[in-house]
Design brief:
globular, two-stranded antiparallel sheet, about 210 residues, alpha/beta, 10 helices
């Protein structure tokens, strides 16, 4: 019987920060919001947070309605950009997914907007690897709750979540499933039982995860 692995995206499977910054700067300019241009570092610093929290951090001078309007524009341009250009895949992602597919069903759960995961999959031709996805853009819930929804929908028993931030770890705790820390990503997780320094280490580490 195959088991399930649920992946975070940013800092775990790829780094899209440069493309996101470029597309968001285009949206900010079109909206007429005056702020210094966003950098890839700015985007990396908020990866893993919900889109609403990101808007609060990056667009603090705008009111709630303006933040929503600008965020919607940013997300539309971002999805279009990433579908065309993709991001930077971490080394050995495709090779590792091929290996994992033999014994595991693979999924993605992210705090991103609707369409972002699909842009990743289309740009990098990942359709054959991932069976289902869930995101904040569809559920408007925490990542832990989105994990629970995907787990229930796919009838998974004790799947494993792989991510790179403390928020990812908490989402696994909230969903009651084991967590593997991708230490090569954007965040920090203290005292994690399972840790990988590159995605290629994941198959071996999974042998130890109960």
């Amino acid at each position: 019987m195959k088991k399930g692995i649920i992946f975070d995206m940013d800092g775990t499977l790829w780094d899209s920060a440069a493309g996101v910054a470029e597309s968001w700067n285009e949206a900010i300019l079109a909206y007429g919001y005056e702020r210094k241009p966003l950098t890839a570092g700015d985007i990396q610093s908020v990866m893993g947070k919900t889109m609403e929290d990101i808007a609060d951090i990056l667009f603090p001078e705008l009111n709630v309605m303006q933040r929503k309007e600008l965020l919607d524009l940013c997300c539309r341009l971002e999805n279009d950009y990433l579908r065309r250009h993709g991001g930077v895949l971490y080394p050995d992602i495709r090779k590792t997914m091929e290996k994992l597919k033999v014994n595991y069903h693979l999924y993605i759960v992210s705090n991103c907007q609707d369409g972002y995961i699909e842009a990743f999959i289309k740009a990098h031709h990942m359709e054959k690897y991932f069976e289902d996805t869930e995101c904040w853009g569809r559920t408007r819930l925490s990542k832990g709750e989105s994990n629970k929804i995907l787990i229930a929908r796919n009838h998974l028993k004790n799947p494993i979540y792989v991510g790179d931030t403390a928020g990812d770890y908490q989402s696994a705790v909230d969903a009651g499933i084991p967590f593997v820390y991708a230490a090569y990503g954007f965040g920090e997780v203290q005292d994690c039982a399972y840790e990988i320094q590159s995605i290629r280490e994941l198959p071996k580490v999974l042998e130890r995860v109960q």
